[in-house]
Amino acid sequence: MPSAGYVYLVAIVKRTVQASPDQVFAVLADGWTYSDWVVGTVHIRDVDEHWPQVGAQLHHKAGPWPLSLHDSSTVLAMVPDRLLKLRAGLWPLGSAVVELVLDPLADGGTRITMKEDFEAGPLLFVRNKLNDLVLHRRNIESLRRLNDIVLRSSTKGAQT
């Protein structure tokens, strides 16, 4: 158990995307794209047919071969074009809760807020400021990649 007085820092990252919340959510709603933008996820093995409805799972592989781990992420909450909350599994190392909040901006863009915190397993108990910094940096890169995919997707949609 963590010692009394220790304050856990949740990795919170924000990014503004020049696309509407529905365009951003369209990418989040396509579970097959997660290995393209979630740093550390190297392969999506399967996506439940009803993704991203609550209870749906995407099955992924994380980490380099031969050390890669197979696990699943489960939707905990979802509001179309506004919120996606997941339990991301990485057993035997643990699991984290990841929340993506989409806020529409007056200029037509979207502010994405990504919060991630460990909730179970050994990673929860070894977490420290360094881990938070690494998680924070990883999520900055994940949102940069998500931005690129959203912009590429919205450009394709405009061309058709």
From TrEMBL:
Pfam families, sorted: Polyketide_cyc2
Origin: domain of life: Bacteria
SUPFAM superfamilies: Bet v1-like
Name of the protein: Polyketide cyclase
Coiled coil: none
InterPro entries membership: Polyketide_cyclase/dehydratase, START-like_dom_sf
